[in-house]
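--- STAGE predict ---
source: upstream dedup step, 1 unique chain passed
mode: sequence only
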Amino acid sequence: MAAPDETRPEARTERHEFALERYRYILQQIHAVNENAHRFLAIYQTLATTLVGATLALFVGYRNWGVAPATARGGVIGLLTLTTVVAAFTVTLIVVGAFAWLDYRNEECDITDEMVGPGFRKRPRPGNLTRWYETYVLLFIAVSVITMWVLAGFFILPAMR
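--- STAGE serialize ---
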């Protein structure tokens, strides 16, 4: 198949229309990736709150329920482990989303460089991590999981003897 004749006005118009549609798609995907990070944080917050609430309920009620302290400690550790797994899954989804975002932004820059002119859109720089809200979401998740385990290790588990 021969390459399209770029000298024909209709070929240039088709190329521009294709580039415009691709650009719209890329912007839509960037928007979806941004929304997904918020969804993942909401899911983490909901599940972590529920699981930690169940952990505290177990801690408070294990004697009244007739559960052996060793079994209750195992339950607490299991619930906290499950919370950690949820956190790890959420972190994975956010990191993958950030890589997808970088890829889409680079593709956006490729299209604008070709269709508008070089340098129209600056490429993303991973050095700007301090300006990405995903960085702070990941820090929040890490700090909350570490805090959960430290509090359980110092206060909850020793009290269940």
